[in-house]
Amino acid sequence: MNYTEPFIPTPEDIIPKMLSFASVKAGETVFDLGSGDGRILIAAARDFHARGVGVETRKRLVIACRKKVNEMGLSGQVTISCRSFKKVSLRKADVLALYLSSYVLNQLVPKFSSELRSGTRIVNFDYEIPGWTPVREMEVLPEGWKKPHPIYLYVT
User: Fold this and answer.
1) Is the model's pTM score more than 0.70?
2) Can you list the alpha helix ranges (DSSP code H) found in 3-139?
3) Rounded distance, CA 125 to CA 9, Å?
4) Is 79 left (phi over 0), alpha (psi -120 to 50) or beta?
5) pLDDT band at 87 (very low <50, low <70, confident <90, very high)
6) Residue 1 pLDDT
7) Do residues 129 and 101 make contact, with C-beta atoms less than 8 angstroms apart?
């Protein structure tokens, strides 16, 4: 069975909080698995001077993201590929900035364990990685939402 997460964008006002919480630094490489419209990648490049690497299976979202990245002059900093993130190497990641369900995160645990370098940070909005203990967590209230939601930070 091929399970695809629904496209639910990370709230715009939460993205800078996630990237700051993960201590993204200029020159680092931020991966977003299931990058959707690229909003996390764009913020990482534009606001944190990081390199963004996105992986998305929906071709229309990849095309839209590439167009926006080009229009913003960020094509030297952001790349996005249209493929399954299970087939992409994570070895160059300094940070994974994600909005993935615990179901998908659980499927990725073996990949994280085998591919991520020691010290890689994983920041995920709303869902914990099953079986892992976050080093920090914080509650945020996205604009227009009724109750706070967590951001989890893990370090490999």
Assistant:
1) yes
2) 15-21, 39-48, 59-71, 102-115
3) 11
4) beta
5) confident
6) 39
7) no
